[in-house]
Amino acid sequence: MQSWNLHEIETPGGSISPVVLDSDDAARIVVIGLDPGQELGEHQVKEHALVLVVDGTVRVEAGDESLEAPSGTLFTFEPDERHSISTQGGARILLFLAPWPGTDRGFFLAPPELPLGQRVPGAFQVRPVHRAVHQVHERQEEGRVDEGHE
Length: 150
Known about the structure:
Layout: E1 19-23, E2 28-34, E3 39-43, E4 48-62, E5 65-70, E6 74-77, E7 83-86, E8 91-98, H1 129-141
Antiparallel strand pairs: 1-2, 2-8, 3-7, 4-5, 4-6, 4-7, 4-8
């Protein structure tokens, strides 16, 4: 059995420091802190996504729907369903992606040597991994590596 106290996991820098709690072929579980005013802009993932608001309040938009969601609210998104999550006062969310990865284009990629429960270095990736890796290689070749921020 594994367990985590979601209120005690550090996520300095908010959305740029997601913490992977567990990852296997069944699912990936990630804690994301959102600092006041931060957002996960409109994006989609290839997996089924379940998002639980752990602390704070978020605004979730998907298609023509929009909802202010306090802690304890659970959302589900189908693969490729576009959505955004934002907060004015700060929030903490728990993300489940299943199955992991949904296709060859996952949500974000943690280096294989990074132990579970540690922050993923660099920016939170909400774009296909193969495109992101290609863009990083281009920046490295041009000498303008920017830790994944665009």
